[in-house]
Amino acid sequence: MRGASLIKRTLSKISKMSTTLNPRESGEHIVRHAKYLKVLPSGIERLVEEIVSGVLDKRIAVANFSQHELHPSPNDDYAANWIFIVDTLNFCFWTPHNYTKYKVNGYTGYFALCAAINRAMKDGLDITNPEFYAKIDLATLEKIFRPDDATTQIPLLEKRLECLHQVGECLLTKWQGRFENVVKEANNSAVKLLQLIVDEFPCFRDQAEFAGERVSILKRAQILVGDLWSCYCGEGLGYFEDIEKVTMFADYRVPQVLVHFGSLEYTPELLELLKKDTILQNGDAMEVEIRGASIYIIEEVKDAVLTILKEKHPEVDTRSVNSILIDQYLWDYRREHAAELEYIPFHKVLSIYY
Questions:
Q1: What is the dihedral of CA 106, 115, 74, 23, to 10 degrees?
Q2: Does the annotation mark 251 as catalytic?
Q3: Helix, strand, or coil (residue 215)
Q4: 60-111 tens-digit pLDDT
Q5: Residue 156 and residue 352 in contact, taking contact as beta carbons nearer than 8 Å
């Protein structure tokens, strides 16, 4: 009997570990077991006030995505494949000792990536076509991402090459070379599309083991869904009946805003490590805690904002108030207040996941 009981407990443990928590569940689990940070309700309240204000004066709106000059229009035939290729490569733009050094046409970070892809298209390269990038070589990719200063290369170039080959081959083999076929397979479900992306394209599988559970952060997979929704303004290919289940896109910049608003507080040990520019490993407990807490905080903010809007501003259409727009707003906030927030160190990880 004792042996049978031990086997039962072991099987139960294996079964539990084989189940991956979704991002919202992961955030809750991570915060519940966090050792290196605290989530502060008073700071969440300040964030809620900021977001409610942004919604009411329309600084927070789905149209803000398409308004950027580097983004495609929903009327562009290549829009879905453009979004897919950009989010396949949407990771790690910082370089040690100078975090905005990599530039393309004057743009930094994510927008430097967009500028490089658009420049390649103007140069006549069929960069959004998997027939092209599934077989692209390193020299061609290096030319596509050539920097303004001719010396600072985009980080993890070989990893980007691997990602392109991986997703390109899968698209050609199973999806007729069009990402929109993957989207259509999800039948207007953001959750189903997320699962398809993670299952079909391993380079989007942003997960970790933490406190006895397998957690999922899924920054790039979720931002891929969010970018589709934003580009198409929640209509057509961008319509998802459960878009509210997509969480924020946990990276290394939004946490600076969360600390700034007082919703996130690091322990002295973690803060000292970050100030020393220590490069963490992907999956390190400190890294997972920062990203998981970010998801948790934004979900708390979203829930509170929706409650306030429904109770005090019933005229506001809350169908477009979600974690995607809150994340986009806070990400832009960090860029607009970069100098003011520079005193807050950000965690550094050389990773393909964000």
A1: -90
A2: yes
A3: strand
A4: 887 776 678 999 999 999 999 999 999 999 999 987 766 668 899 999 989 9
A5: yes
